[in-house]
Amino acid sequence: MSARVRAPELRGRGWLNTGGRQLTLADLRGKITIADFWTFCCINCLHVLDELRPIEEKYADVLVVIGVHSPKFEHEKDPDALAAAVERYGVHHPVLDDPELDMWQQYAARAWPTLVVIDPEGYVVATMAGEGHAEGLVRLIDELIATHEAKSTLHRGDGPYVPPAEPQTTLRFPGKAVALPDGGLLVSDSARHRVVELADDGETVVRAIGTGSRGRADGAADTASFSEPQGLCLLPAHVAEVAGYDLVVADTVNHLLRGVRLDTGEVVTAAGTGRQWRSTVDDHAHDALSIDLSSPWDLAWYDGRVIVAMAGIHQLWWFDPVKRTAGMYAGTTVEALRDGPLAEAWLAQPSGLSVSADGARLWVADSETSAIRYVENGVMGTVVGQGLFDFGHVDGPAAQALLQHPLGVCALPDGSVLIADTYNGAVRRYDPAADLVSTVAAGLGEPSDLVLTPDGAVLVVESAAHRVTQVAPGALSAAGAQTVDGPRHRTERKPIDLAAGEVVLDVVFIPAPGQKLDETYGPSTRLVVSASPPELLVEGAGTGTELSRRLVVDGSVPGGVLQVTAQAATCDADVEHAACHLTRQDWGVPVRVVADGAARLPLVLRGLDAG
What we know:
By secondary structure, the protein is mainly beta. The chain contains 6 helices and 45 strands. Strands 1, 2, 3, 4, 5, 6, 7, 37, 40, 42 and 45 form an 11-stranded mixed beta sheet that branches. Strand 43 (559-572) and strand 44 form a beta hairpin. The radius of gyration is 24 Å and the shape is globular. Keywords: Repeat.
């Protein structure tokens, strides 16, 4: 039996969703507490917020979820940006602002997201990295309820959450937009769970499609519902006629693609089951309504199909609305930056798409690598961006330029590309002829998309400002742009000291209570390891089925980042019609090679305290 570990006290810059109250662990005594370490750029963290919602509702009188916001990007350290994100993503529990990652270090978190379960007496009983833990959490909470009711240490009643007032604006955190051929604009009004048609002034609401409440119902415009919709794609007329709808909507949190008839506003489900994708990578075509998706974020018509920025699993997918089939297009699900043939490329939360005027090139905003990438002739390339941990606001030669979590791109007729540089609050321009990046506009509210209108104007979706604005025409030329030599940032987390030579990587995974490893469809576990720089590892890179791996670290390389992806398949044990689950996590582990470093690197995919 291991020693029981007291949860460290909760301290930070401030609290949100508590009505101004500063919470302590003493205030949570008698409740089961889940500390959710997250950062609002991270799609896996957003998945966990969605997984926690029904659990919070079911156990409202005994469970308190505390969001501990430990940021990756510089912009995420801004308290106003955090407050906006808490509203944008419907976070209905207290949030502790941890801008310097103090709590992250106190609780030994190494990955976004990480969940820590604290019992009613203030002891840590479980740590879980990654997503897909909902079933395990429910079983653990049931066990804790039974144990602590018997000990009289469980106190039922309301939690400390205090909802903030919602300001009234025409749009609320709009995500993406598309211009209508006859004027006007369609906008995904993401935080209000609807699609809005605006007049050509960009402000007047012509109509709304969707009830405005979170849901996933098909039907007429006033009864259909979405959940945080993002990307929009108008189909070519001949395709729309066969498909039976004109517009495809990335219904992000529902993990669906929806079709909308623009003449009536009727909504149908075009692709997806509503379940989040947790499977194995293949190159097959699947029936569109039978395949699981994962947080589709943007859409574009390219190569005779709808291309989907599947942010949730770091891939691009395709969807054929005529054949009603869908499948994977690019990426392996490994979260990193690597160019090459589409099936071998690595992406990191692709969130924006745009097609060049000649239709030859698909531009991609790869948000977590702060990169602008492209697809052409079956290959993925990168024009701006250096990796998962390098970002900033720097113009100039594209190879040295830096962005900060861009969410949108817009290809212009002259071959240049506009970039919604979201966390820098700017619109940037990449000129491929000169291979230069410049700043077109600054001081914007988290721009998330750019739209070229039929008359040549460029509109910006300012998500955090809840509006659509126009870029000044003069700023779009090379002469009208400016050059910014701003700060360069690199996400610096405390590195782990490793010894040169042999190091054992162990990913700790214990199935949730009532579950067992599932080998019905092959090996139950999978481990992918790579390094940046690649020279850091002499041996051990690659894919295997064991969660333990012998690595050989090159002592001549001072350090770098180990990129580790682990997953484990489980199913319910000893029950009829057992449900199956897939737990998965990506780590970017900064390491330093030193003489007295460790010879073992443990990572926790899911761990339980044996005591």
